[in-house]
Amino acid sequence: MTSPIELRHAKVTLALHPLREPRAAGARPLLLLHGRGERTLARHAGAAEAWPGAILGLDFTGHGASTLPRGGGYTAEILMADADAALAHLGPATLLGRGLGAYVALLLAGARPERVRGAILCDGPGLAGGGPRPTTPSIPWPAERLDGGAPDPFALVDLARDVRPPDYATSFARQASQLSGLERPLSVCSLERPDWLRAVLDEPGVADTTLAEALAHYGNGLR
Asked: pTM for this structure?
């Protein structure tokens, strides 16, 4: 894997990893978003071998080679802003999210419908988050890693408690459907179906499909 591109998001430096060069002129890039506690790995590009454009992967804040801020405070919305910074660098792109990255891809598809040219939601760590409703409030205080490296223990705790109400998730699906101009802005390829994802599947413009079919749809249908 080549050296990452460094992107600034507020006080954080994000690592955007180029994983593969484009194989067709003018083809759109594919941005990989990892699961909770993961990082971008070169082998992740193998799952999207047929994609015609460049493939890149983003390390979220507190993960991989990106900055580890002190004190926690992680939310899916902060990570959505991380991915938005990557989109600002890349231009219009298709998103492929695993677990937590799938939820972030949904949020960004609704928040930036003009830039996200299809979002593919797959299984992976952190897909369910903290469930549909808040639990008893508490202050997390995880043990720090001795090596000070990623993933940030606060990220693991905060993002495991991140609440995902179905009606909140469907509002982003509707924005993507109504504002992207795409007939099918979202494709769900996961076997796990937490409450928020089952609700999203009932929305127009959302397909229940396989990863191979979704990649072919976005890779060949729109450039």
From this structure: 0.93
